[in-house]
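Below is one such protein, fold included:
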Amino acid sequence: MFNAGSGQRSRVRGQLILLALLLLTPSSAPAQDAPDKAKDVIAAAIEAMGGKSYLEFKNYHRQGRYFIFDQRGNQNFSRFFDWTVLEPIKWRFQLGEGKRQQVQIYNLELHKGWLLEGESSVEEVGQEELMAFEKDVLRDIDILLRSRVDEEGMNLYYYGPDDVTGSGELEAVEFLDATNSSVVIFFDLQSHLPTKMETHVTNQAGIRQKKETEFSNWHTIQGIHTPLRTDYFTDGEKSQQVFVEEISYNIAIPPSHFLEPVPKK
């Protein structure tokens, strides 16, 4: 699921942060039949998440509570509203409402994006931010499981419960693409649902960071098993927390939601 983080001048910039709390042990090595085993694990996860219903949903709208944590652990809270279309990605993420709202819009069909602050300040997203968003899209769990799994140049590696530190209740699949970008997804052995993700990114200051997330509080909505709570971490520190209170799949979303906003005068 897509996510947004706080940024300069109190802006929010869309980031698809894909993560996990557990690490693969340094000495662990994938089994020789890793690609086949990895695909079996992914197939079981897709079935657990709704099978055909999960693979075929086209869009969703969700809303709920969004928390941002600073380095001291203090939190700021806001209502959020999220409209997402897949293939091609179109995304509108809103924090707050009215004169206090902050809205991000990314439309990869047009390769454009905009930031709306309040009701009257609109700015087009620069190419650097747009490219960063496009990279984040490639790390999104739905994109990985639904479309990138069969991508040319994508290598899959399986790690069993003995290879993953922790309670022995998880297995993992690493997605390593042609650019050497890696995302590890951890799956519960019993439910087959994804529970955690982990990746590394380089921030705007050129510092490499570990990004992690936890998925929990799963509920079946319109045939799709959906996590209603997501916890995000940066270098082990909690950075964001999202509680989904309402979500609807395959709804009618006005095309104007993903175009340049018209400011109020």
Observations:
- The chain has one domain: 3-258.
- The first strand starts at residue 3 and ends at 6.
- Residues 6-29 have pLDDT under 50 and may be disordered.
